Amino acid sequence: MFRGIKRQDWRAGPDAARQLGRDLAKRGEIAYWVAWPEKDPPEGKRTDKRGGAREPLRLRSAKLLDARYRFVCECRICDRSPTGLRLVLARNVALVPRLAVHIDETSEVRGANVIWRRGLTVGIRLREVAPADALRPSDRYALRERYYAILD
Questions:
Q1: How many domains, the chain?
Q2: 3-state percent helix, strand, coil for the chain, nearest multiple of 5
């Protein structure tokens, strides 16, 4: 039969915690402590460096365009924040640091900067909305459709 002992002196350090655990194990006892995450971690220890909260999304598609608004690749939006998107590319393509993204849900075209990339997953920071004359109306219409083609 095991008995549990709640101990507060585990925080003294990892060596003290290991020794206490060994001593209790020899006696057939278990030591534990209950820890709660801090409400607001110190600024230096913050791991999430986003400017705003992210919103997970499912089945939202987008299209990446180069700086001259030419089609580059289809992608899926995994989550979004007020300032950026996390995308999964449909195929492995080279990306330039500054590009544009067509968000299929809203038909909005926004400028973007590639912030990070891990394989097919890309993090982009959204910039200004593309000017109305950046794309011809026929190109905007073509990007909205499921099957599309844009001439070079």
A1: 2
A2: 20, 40, 40
Beta strands in the chain (DSSP E): 3-6, 29-32, 55-65, 71-80, 84-89, 98-103, 108-118, 121-129
Same domain, 15 and 85: no
Provide the 3-class DSSP secondary structure of residue 65: strand
Q: How far is the C-alpha of 103 from the C-alpha of 75, rounded, in Å? A: 10
Q: What is the pLDDT tens value at each position of the chain, 152 positions in all?
A: 444 455 555 555 667 777 777 787 787 776 655 555 555 555 555 565 666 677 777 778 899 999 888 889 999 999 988 889 999 999 999 999 999 999 888 888 999 999 999 999 999 999 988 887 788 887 877 787 665 555 55
| Residue 83 lies inside a defined structural domain of this protein | yes
